[in-house]
Amino acid sequence: MMKQQKVKILAIESSCDETAAAVVEDGRKVLSNVISSQIEIHTVYGGVVPEIASRKHLEAIDGVIGKALADSSCTWDDIDAIAVTQGPGLVGALLVGVSEAKSLAYALHKPLIGVHHIEGHIAANYISDPEWQPPFLCLVISGGHTYLCIVEDYGVNRMLGETRDDAAGEAFDKVARAIGLGYPGGPKLQKAALEGNPEAFHFPRPCLEEEGYDFSFSGLKSAVLNTLNHLKMTGEAFTQADIAASFQAAVTDVLVGKTMQAAGEYGIRRVAMAGGVSANAAIRKAMQEACDFRGITLSVPSISLCTDNAAMIGSAAYFTYLRGDFAGPALNAEPDMPLLVR
Question: Does 101 share its domain with 139?
């Protein structure tokens, strides 16, 4: 019997401020993964400036794709399909990637695959653990999204809950800015928290005692800001580290608590994390301890696959490729693209 040819997908990611391209084989083996970061550029402005991000994507994308192809030791003839993040994200940034992918697919006569950014984050687990597969419960935590869903099959997600307002990563960034840590807030707040007392301040754990699996971090953020204003007005001494550690502890309790509640209610013994905030060491540690206590198997992507990258897009695209669900020339960026159940 002739051995089945391995499927190689060139993937592009440009949803925010990372210009990325990768070549992924059979959805789980990364042949190359190239990222051009804009963090230093946007740090000057205290956050991502959409117009600047789009311009930098335009400048970097051809070089990033060329390096990804070279690093994989592949030629265009070896590539079976072109995949790209279709949404959600910054519309101008997404359009750069989508336009590039459409042009390549047309010129090279390759199938085109549009990928939901969050499905990419979930699929990062298939790269970090080649044996990992659905079904499982997944907590997706990033700068713009907080979801708790059951991944019933590849690309088939049953939504249990989502954020009603600020996403977890957004709250991290806003609190980091408020206590003077600057951008990017998440990593800086985590570092500051290492030196702080997580019990110095008791911030609320929103939604933790409520039924259902929605999240809300706007009130928690406001509680931190109100505490800061009170401390400054009264002249009470405090440290950035204590505020950071106490805030991080509150977010961690909510994320882990809700995930364990869902695992118990639905009888799920396999849990995964995904998204940029899942790189947070305190959250990873707390989730691992909670899963170990309950005999639940936990999958968390490697740190490099938690943040935005194209390898995760290539992984998610592979399972779409197997379904033959290809896009046409009408594929467009969708900045508010919902995570749908197929």
Answer: no
By residue count, the chain amounts to 342
If you search the block for the tokens 């401390």, which residue do you land on? 231
Phi, psi of 161 (to 5 degrees): -165, 160
Tell me which DSSP letter residue 90 carries: -
* pLDDT profile of the chain (342 residues), mean per 10: 73 96 98 94 87 95 98 98 97 98 98 97 97 97 92 95 92 94 92 96 90 93 95 94 97 97 97 96 98 98 95 98 95 90 56
18: its two tokens: 């990372």
Rounded to 5 degrees, what angle do the CA atoms 192, 197, 200 make? 120
Handedness of CA 97, 98, 99, 103 (dihedral sign): positive
- Whose tokens are 């570092």? That residue is 191
Q: Which domain holds residue 117?
A: 8-123+307-323
- 302 burial (CB, 10 Å; 0-12 / 13-18 / 19+) is exposed
- Verify that 316 and 301 share a domain, yes or no: no
